[in-house]
Amino acid sequence: MEDLVGLFAIVLTLMIPIVAIVFSMIKKVSKSKLDNELRLEIVRSGNTSPEVVKELLKTPEKKASDNKIVALRWGCALAGLGLAALVCHLTGLGFGSAYTYAYLILGCGVGLIGAVIVEMVLGKKNEKLPDVKP
């Protein structure tokens, strides 16, 4: 019976991210579909100028800076997690200790805080630079 409880706990733990991913994808697809329907309805109404129609039918571009920020956040979080694991290894804490998990969570949090600080510094640098159009 104890084996089934442990197996049940593992399965439920693994289902949390799976369910979150599925629902986020459903939300993303439905939002995209509703946005497209709204654009088409505005275009079909015939009361809009050609410039507005052109702007509505244009697909939004993804910024390369968004990918860089996501990579920065993941990198800092994983670096903090790795440093926390190193501290746990050097201090001799095993995975049976609650302190190990506390250090791992703390390391991940410190890494994410570091990412936010780096983003703010980079944001201030980008504000100082003037926009130059070719």
Number of strands: 0
Overall mean pLDDT: 81
- Biggest β-sheet, characterized? none
H/E element sequence: HHHH
Poorly predicted regions are none
- In the residues, how many domains can be counted? 2
Intertermini distance: 70 Å
Q: What's the Cα radius of gyration?
A: 24 Å
Number of helices: 4
Broad structural category: mainly alpha
Instruction: Please state roughly what percent of the residues sit in beta strands, choosing from under 5%, 5-15%, 15-25%, 25-35%, 35-45% or over 45%.
Output: under 5%
Percentage of residues in helical conformation = over 70%
- Multimer state: single chain
Shape: flat
Report on this structure.
This protein folds into two domains: 1-60; 62-134, no CATH class. It has helices at residues 2-45, 50-57, 64-91, 98-128. The protein has 134 residues and is mainly α. The longest helix has 44 residues, at 2-45. Helix 3 runs antiparallel to helix 4.
Describe the structure in brief.
83% of the residues lie in helices and 0% in strands. It is an all-alpha fold.
